[in-house]
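Q: What structure does this chain adopt?
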Amino acid sequence: MKIALDAMGGDHAPRDPVQGAVLAVRDAEVLGLANHDLEIVLVGRKEEVEKELAESGDYPKKSISIVDAREVVEMGESPAHACKQKRDSSIVRCAGLVKNGEVSATISAGNSGAAMAAALMMCGRIDGVLRPAIVTMVPSINGVSVLVDAGANVDCKAKHLLQFALMGDVLARTVLNFKSPRVGLLSIGEEETKGNELVFETQGLLKKVPLNYIGNVEGRDIVNGNCDVTVCDGFVGNVTLKAIEGVGEMVLQGLSREIKSNLITLIGGMIARPAFNRFKKHVDWREFGGAPLLGIDGLCLISHGKSNAYAIKNAVRMALRCVNKDMNGVLKKQINDHGQVVDKPESK
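A:
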């Protein structure tokens, strides 16, 4: 099992990606693999990667290799332009490794638009897919729920949201082990009469496919356990995701501040520390590691730009689960059976 990791992607690259790779190969047995069954290919400037590896302590040396890539796509660059002009960038080289079958998946915490553009340019779409979507996991009262699209497509049509629903259902069933995930369409009210033209048109399409479609859902249903897969366009999805992350951080910081406000609450906080730690872990986005970019003919995961080593390790874990569950194979069948539309796929 080989996983390509963009060593130059993220706010603190190459330090955090390299350290995340080291954590992953050290914990390979926890991730479900013996050490010799997992190899992480670090893609980036060789001398910088080697320097970080030298400072990372002991790890199984045969489990990490390096592919030299001299260019870096910066966060502020135009994704499409950067991928065309920087063919030797770590993001493009990672996607190329997937295309050539040299690795099973690729992960990047760099420019997410460039990661998507590189995946499209190198790997192309799954037959029948109109637009790839970022499918991300968010904390829920019941454990976890799925949000799709989380930012890949800001302007969508109903046919796109139909395919997003099918993609989210596949990830929930294969990777998260939901038997019959409840699929909801994000709107301003639960009633069918509430929403915009996109919501109304999508409602009709979702009723025609064999999903456990429960109708319109509101933003609170994403986290209160009433919905397992929430479908929306990428603009709304990305705003929603960032709002959920922000609320989680606010709650944690607020609890910490109040616990430290006086001696009595401080003592109580020390007693309740195990419960607070479990709650913190439950709402921490780093636990999910990376969001699969579904619809690409190859497995690509996008991680948060702020991902630390722990988040990168969890992204590797997510990639392994996607590969082992043959998520893309199931998705291809789902799109072929239920996601076909009259329109031809849009130009690449």
